[in-house]
Amino acid sequence: MAYQKFRGDYLFTGTTLLDNKHVLVTNEQGVVKDIAPIAEAGEGIQTFEGILSPGFINCHCHLELSHMKGLIPEHTGLVPFILSILKQRHATEDEIFAAIQQADEAMFQEGIVAVGDISNNALSFAQKQNSKLQYHNFIEVSGFSPAIAQPRFEVALEVYNTFKTHFPNHTSLVPHAPYSVSTNLFGLIDALDSNTLSSIHNQETPDENEFFFTGDGSFNLLYETIGVDIKQFFQPSGKTSLQTILPLISKPKKLLLVHDTFTSQGDIDLLKATPSSIQQTIFCLCVNANLYIENKLPPIDLFLQNNCEIVLGTDSLASNHQLSISSEILTITQNFPHIPLQTILQWATSNGANALGMDNQLGSFIFGKKPGIVNITNLNKQGNLTTESNAVRIL
Ligand SMILES: [Zn+2]
Predict the structure, then answer these.
(1) Cα(2) to centroid of ligand 1, in Å?
(2) Cα(44) to centroid(ligand 1), Å
(3) Among 1, 105, 270, 350, which residue is least crowded by beta carbons within 10 Å?
(4) pLDDT band for position 275 (50/70/90)?
(5) pTM (2 d.p.)
(6) What is the predicted pLDDT for the residue at 17?
(7) Tens digits of per-residue pLDDT, 219-248?
(8) Ligand 1 centre from 362 Cα, in Å?
(9) What is the pLDDT of residue 84?
(10) Measured in angstroms, how far is the CA atom of residue 45 from the centroid of ligand 1?
(11) In what order do the strands lie in the sheet with 32-37?
């Protein structure tokens, strides 16, 4: 059997950053056979500048919004952003399909091997069936008025069943956000037994917590604008948004909390203290989208101090200039230079694969897995990413 051998300035295994004295050995199909010391690796080694890493896992994307690239201005805050999405998300199906295909291919080139993708409809289904990427589909439902819980759930269930036919183990039905899902709708979602992995947009703006604490803030403008009279059914809970909705999610074994820009120590303490069937709570950071929408970054040091499990996402092209995990890594290293690159690369690879339930094949260079290989180039002298860095899929 023919082997392929790869050596970089650094070899990241999925958990550990090794130096250039290690060689990755795979078979012809890219299945990992060994990490060998250079002295024992023999001939025919392909050498690369920079880091070799397992393929990246993008845990949060909205492929179906790819046609909205560049449409929404930056730094407006979340509520004006959502109103712009609602106003401008419509386009012809051909435009939407073309943008989905382009974004899917760009992610592949950039070294992403798997995506946790939010779907409000089935427009991305055809592309995903033929994609070189693997997908976990989060079929998302929203509706803040209790009166529309049942019809909204039924529409989402139809999309969910469509995706289930092709992705039986990688489709979930999930709530959009605490401020957009009624207690009734949370109940319908939670009753779905097959939902072992869930996801929710969490604490993306300070107004989200304010809305639940006091009932004030910009979410009133959102509901006024879309004509929903929230006084009929909404009472502020006097708690943060996360603390309010956590008891409504009981079935899933794993929960991805996406954004977490305004998550506090109190929220983390509550997550640890609350008896729940949720065995794994995962913080999914989308830093470039946070800068785009709110011009704020999540409290990453707080998550590290609490040993929280972290993964990375790009969010959509409506709130990001590119769907690139290496660009997310760069933004984190620029703003949190004390966090070792090895730690951030683990979020981007093995942690992501574990979160999406794909770690049997992806996320690390372990014997028998086929995780893809990405080459990150143009590092600085300290071995960190620079604005010149590129990530290129080499296998
Ligand atoms: Zn999102």
Answers:
(1) 43
(2) 44
(3) 1
(4) low
(5) 0.98
(6) 97
(7) 999 999 999 999 999 999 999 999 999 999
(8) 23
(9) 92
(10) 41
(11) 32-37, 22-27, 3-7, 45-47
Reported confidence tier of residue 203, pLDDT bands at 50, 70, 90? very high
Question: How far is the centre of ligand 1, averaged over its atoms, from the C-alpha of 31 (Å)?
Answer: 32
DSSP state of 55: P
- Residue 303, judged by CB atoms within 10 A of its CB (0-12, 13-18, 19+), counts as middle
| Amino acid letter, residue 109 | Q
Residue 286 Cα, ligand 1 centroid: separation in angstroms? Answer: 9
Domain boundaries, the chain: 56-323
CA of 132 to the centre of ligand 1 (A): 22
Question: Band of the pLDDT at 194, cuts 50, 70, 90?
Answer: confident
Unique residue bearing structure tokens 């794909």:
358
Residue 26 Cα to ligand 1 midpoint, Å, equals 35
Q: How far is the CA of 66 from the centre of ligand 1 (A)?
A: 12
Q: Which amino acid is at 336?
A: F
Q: What percent of the chain has pLDDT over 90?
A: 94
> Measured between alpha carbons, how far is 117 from 139 in angstroms, rounded to an integer?
8
Residue where the block lists tokens 């382009």: 102
pLDDT of residue 274: 75
Q: How far is the CA of 61 from the centre of ligand 1 (A)?
A: 6
Fold designation for 56-323: TIM Barrel (3.20.20)
